[in-house]
Amino acid sequence: MKAYGYILDPVSNATGRKMAMSFPDVIVVRSRRKTVSIEITADNKVLVRVPLNMSSRDISFVLEEKKGWISKHLRKRSVRAGDPLPSFSKTQLEELAEQAKADLPQRAKHYAELIGVRYGRITIRAQRTRWGSCSSLGNLNFNCLAMLCPERMRDYIVVHELCHLKHMDHSPAFWSLVARYIPDYSECRRWLRTDGSILIERLRKS
After folding, report:
1. Is 86 buried (19+), middle (13-18) or exposed (0-12) by CB count in 10 A?
2. pLDDT > 90? residue 26
3. N or C: which terminal CB in the chain sees fewer CB atoms within 10 Å?
4. Rounded CA gap, 123 and 97, in Å?
C-alpha cells in the first residue's frame, strides 16, 4: 500500500474565500483507506489520514469542523511539554465565587421568566468537571469559573441548565429550546470545550 504525504495549505472554499487554519502545519497522508482520522504528532503537527481521492477542499472542511477538538488537544500537549498553566489560589476562587453569587442568580431569574420555568436553590462551586448542573429537584449548580468566561458564555451556561427543567436530557427538543434563547449555542459549546477547558485544567492543578 502506497501512501502520499504533503503539507496542506489553506484552500479556497466554495465562495472563493480563504479558509483560515488556526493551528500549525497540517500533514495529510493519503492511502487506500475509506475514512478520515486526525491525530496530533509529538512535534505538534496535525496528522490527517484520508482516502486517496479526497479533495483538498473537502479536507479543509473536515479540519474546519474539527478545529475545536484540534485546538484543545494542541493546548493540552503544550501544557504537558513544559508550558504549565498557573493554578488558582484559594483567595482567587473565593473572589470568583462571590462574583458568581452576585451575577449568575440574576441571569437565572431573567431567563427562567423567559423560558417559563421555576428552579430551587442555586449553589456556586469550583467544579472540576462541569460548568453547571440541574438536579431532579430543580436545584441548580454553577461553576464559579464562569466569571472568567465571556458574558455570552455565562448566558449559555445558565440557559442550558434552565432548559433541563423542561427536558432532562440532550434530545433535539432540548437543543431546540436552548436555541430559542441562545441561537449561537454551538459556538458557545465550542468555546467552552476549547478555551474553557484551559480554565478547568487550571482548577484541577489548584
Report:
1. exposed
2. no
3. N
4. 10
pTM: 0.62
Structural domain boundaries, residue 18:
4-80
* Whether residues 75 and 127 fall in one domain: no
Q: 112: which residues sit within 8 A by CB, 6+ positions away?
A: 118, 119, 162
Q: Is the pLDDT of residue 4 over 50?
A: no
Q: Determine what percent of the chain is predicted with pLDDT higher than 90.
A: 52
The answer on 103 and 76 residing in a single domain is: no
Angle, CA of 130, 132 and 133, to the nearest 5°: 105
Residues 99 and 192 in one domain: yes
Q: How far apart are CA 46 and CA 23, in angstroms?
A: 8
With cell 436552548, the residue in question is: 178
Phi, psi of 158 (to 5 degrees): -65, -50
And the C-alpha cell for 59? Answer: 479536507
How would you class 124 by CB atoms within 10 Å of its CB: exposed for 0-12, middle for 13-18, buried for 19 or more?
buried
Question: Would residue 75 count as lying in a domain?
Answer: yes
